[in-house]
Write a structure and sequence with these properties.
By secondary structure, the protein is an alpha+beta fold. It is elongated and about 80 Å long. The termini are far apart. The protein contains 3 helices and 14 strands. The longest helix has 15 residues. The chain has 2 domains: 125 residues, NusG, N-terminal domain (Alpha-Beta Plaits), CATH 3.30.70; 53 residues, SH3 type barrels (Roll), CATH 2.30.30. The strands form 4 sheets. It has a 5-stranded antiparallel β-sheet with strand order 13-12-11-10-14, with no helix packed on it. Strands 2-5-1-6 form a 4-stranded antiparallel β-sheet, covered by helices on one side.
Amino acid sequence: MAKKNEEDKVEVATGLYWYVVRSVASQEKKAKAYLETEITRQGYQDSIPEILIPLEKVYEVRNGKKKVRERNFFPGYMLIYCDLSLNAEVLHFIKNTPGIMGFLEEKKGDGDSLIPVPLRQSEVNRILGRVDDTNEGDIQVEADYNVGDSVKVMDGAFSGFSGTIQEVFDDKKKLNVIVKIFGRNTPVELNYMQVEKE
């Protein structure tokens, strides 16, 4: 991206770049579907080859049942891989799509118009790397466990036992649970998927 003068004015980046677009919260999928339909209809495939909603898979424990669901790890945002220099209408098209509120970062261009600023490659690698990781089966566990909670062991050698959480290791998704075995309190390390709240 080239600076035009000392006033920090910029030109539209030439070539394909990733841009962050703000969308109405929880409307990302709708906006993406609309964009994809219109891109095909208006022939913008060369200018906008890819749209991505960064998702991650999480395990959720509710009412004793474990479920997998997808969660947007950047709620209210989408990534669009596009070349805004190919066709001046593309920028206007993206900004005026229902559910899209505009680009995340913009700087002054010619005539004080705002020009979107693309993501740096390091940012793109970090975001896309996280998406690839979750696609390879790195599913996160989302549960609300706290010290002092009573839990029932559902899996493993201590299945059927009840205990009390002594420590929570969120980073490892593990719990240190005190289980009464043969009348004695015994600390047992269990992962989130092995227990459920009582």
